[in-house]
Amino acid sequence: MTPQFPPHWLHPGTVAQARAAQAEMAARIVAHDDLPPRPWRLGAADVSNTRFDPLRRVHAAIVTIDAAGAVVAQADESRVGDFPYVPGYLGFREVPALAAAWARLDPKPDLLLVDGQGLAHPRGLGTACHLGLVLGVPTIGVAKSLLVGTTEPGPAVGDVAPILWKGAHIGTALRTRHGAGPVYVSVGHRVGLDTAVAVVRAACDGRRLPLPIRAAHAAANAVRRAQEAARAT
DNA sequence: GCGACAG
DNA sequence: ATCTTGTCGC
């Protein structure tokens, strides 16, 4: 039962159309728990880019992780992006390739951690929301820096602080490692903020970023190198 | 008008 | 996002 949606949700012709599509999608985001029974099998999605690449290639990867933290499945997609990187519209660049990778992933996870913002976005539609809605899958946004909002969590591992923006609580900053910057957690789709923070906490293992995100990052880098090597010959 | 700006 | 070795600190 893949959810149906209009083509401009993935391929808007202009930034103005992308903005309109975000408004349509934002109205459909489910910001509370709507998940299968526990335990949830986690996964993560990330995209790697070749710097200075005039072709704007997108190297996407999604991984499925087991309870022990091992990668049990991985799928990727390398393609020439049809939308440039524009702050606030990252999803239009990354989601198409990620959706293609998702289709080939087996087994698929119940819950996906996405490298980027969820609701902590100027129009409430970060990449995590975008991907979750297009796939119809529960997602959580895990970003390394803020796009909008302010927050200041304490220095101890586990400390949290709300991310506030225009008077709204749009996410939670979580200190995952002492001496390192926090990670910014926000709802993607079909998950409440409390659950999102708890899941990210549980997925951390002493490093700044949760293990699934690191695995996805490594997988995306691997495809990028493979693609670059293949194209060179 | 000016500055900011996930990956 | 990416370019990159060593180096400082716990």
TrEMBL record:
It is an enzyme of class 3 (hydrolase). The record marks 85 as: Interaction with target DNA. Its main location: cytoplasm. Coiled coil: none annotated. GO terms for molecular function: endonuclease activity. The keyword Zinc does not apply. Its EC number is 3.1.21.7. InterPro entries: Endonuclease-V. Mg(2+) binds at residues 46, 115. It catalyses: Endonucleolytic cleavage at apurinic or apyrimidinic sites to products with a 5'-phosphate. It is found in: Cytoplasm. Its cofactor is Mg(2+). Keywords: Cytoplasm, DNA damage, DNA repair, Endonuclease, Hydrolase, Magnesium, Metal-binding, Nuclease. It comes from the Bacteria. HAMAP family: Endonuclease_5. Belongs to the endonuclease V family. DNA repair enzyme involved in the repair of deaminated bases. Selectively cleaves double-stranded DNA at the second phosphodiester bond 3' to a deoxyinosine leaving behind the intact lesion on the nicked DNA. This is Endonuclease V.
